[in-house]
Amino acid sequence: MRISNLSLFAAICAPLLSACAVPSAWQAANGEGAPCPSMEGYPDCQDGHRVDLARIAPDPQDRVRIQDLQARYELAVGSGDASASAALFTEDGIFEAPGDIARGRAAIRQELTPSGATVSPVKAPHVVTNVVISIDGDKATSTASWMEVDRPSPSHQVQVGAFGHYEDQFIKSRGNWLFTKRKVVTS
User: Fold this and answer.
1) SS3 labels along 143-155
2) Is the pTM of this model over 0.85?
C-alpha cells in the first residue's frame, strides 16, 4: 500500500489539528469538523465540531471489552445479583441513580439490594442500545439507552417497565475495564 505525503502529513498532524476550534482542510475533506451544536456532549462532537470516532477509539478490543463489561452488569442486575454488579466497579466507584448516590463497592452492593434482603428479588432484564464509547488511553466514557422489560406474571404480556440512559465512566486496570461511575438517568 502506497501512502502519499499528504496522507502521511494528515495522519501525523491530525491530532494536533483537531484541537483547533476551526476545522482544518484535512478534517473538512474527511467529513470532520462540521458543526454539531445540538450533539455537544456526545463523543463524536467535541468543541462544537464533529470528530472521527475511529481516532477517538483506535483499539477495537477495548471497545469490545467495555461493551462486555456493560453486558455483564445488565446480566447481574437482571438476575438480581447485587454482589456481581458491585464487583464490576472500582473499589471507590460511584453508582448514581435518581435521588441517590452510592460510593464504593459495599455501598453499591447495598444500593442494589433492597433493605433486609441478601439478593435483590427484582429480576428485570434490561435492553441496552445506542451505545457510544469514547476511549482515551486507560480511561473511557460512554452513553447508552436502556429499557427495563417487565412481565408481572406469566399471564401478562411483556411490557417496558422503565427507560432512560446511562452516563458511564471507566478505567482500565491490569488489562481489565471497570466502572468508575455509572449514572442512571430515567426518562
Assistant:
1) EEEEEEEECCCCC
2) no
> What whole-number distance in Å separates Cα of residue 161 and Cα of residue 167?
20
- pLDDT tens string, the chain, 187 residues long: the values are 455 544 544 455 444 444 434 445 545 555 566 777 766 666 677 777 777 665 554 578 999 999 999 999 998 988 888 999 999 999 999 999 998 999 999 999 999 886 544 444 445 678 899 999 999 889 999 999 999 887 777 787 888 888 999 999 999 998 899 999 999 999 8
What lies within 8 Å, CB to CB, of 99 at 6+ separation is none
Which of 28, 32, 24 has its CA nearest to residue 55? 32
Task: Name residue, grid cell 445540538.
Answer: 38
Under 8 Å between Cβ of 150 and 161:
yes
